[in-house]
Known about the structure:
This protein has helices at 3-24, 30-69. The chain is an all-alpha fold. Helix 1 (3-24) runs antiparallel to helix 2 (30-69).
Amino acid sequence: MTLKEIIMWILIILSMIMVFWYLLGNSPTFEQTLLGILLTLSVTILIKLSVLETKFRFLARDFRIHINKK
């Protein structure tokens, strides 16, 4: 696991804890819980997009190599 994945899983677990804590009462406000969920989603999307961008760079490189061989 990379550091990005570890951070992502930690945030997912923390947001799940906040949701359950909110549902059980005596907890953070709805806005604070929502902020935790949105932060988790934002970081997760950024991590997934960075991985996708890296894959596209490799794909573009492969196409350039293929075109130059002809």
